[in-house]
Amino acid sequence: AAGQKTGHLDAKTRELIALAVAISLRCDGCIAVHVDAARKLGATREEVAEALGVAVSINAGAAIIYSTRSLDAYAALERE
Question: How far apart (Å, rounded) are the C-alpha atoms in residues 7 and 48?
């Protein structure tokens, strides 16, 4: 909640950053939570993909695997 108190970044941007971090940490539960939160805050599939690209550029191979899981989670939420 500390990051929310500054008011410098909007909620959607914070969630996209959190998603990139979750991918870097390889945390499936965190990925699911942050994909859902980002989507609810209006993040498009393209914005999620761009955040995943940042994670991939930092993490290389492992981030690619977890990025595909994020896109799968987004698609699953769209089907609900």
Answer: 21
**Confidence at residue 18, expressed as pLDDT on a 0 to 100 scale:** 94
DSSP state of 8: S
DSSP-H helix ranges across the chain: 11-25, 28-40, 45-59, 61-79
Burial status of residue 31 (CB atoms within 10 A of its CB: 0-12, 13-18, 19 or more): buried
pLDDT tens readout for residues 14-56: 999 999 999 888 899 999 999 999 999 999 999 999 999 888 8
Asked whether 48 and 66 are in contact (CB, 8 A), the reply is no
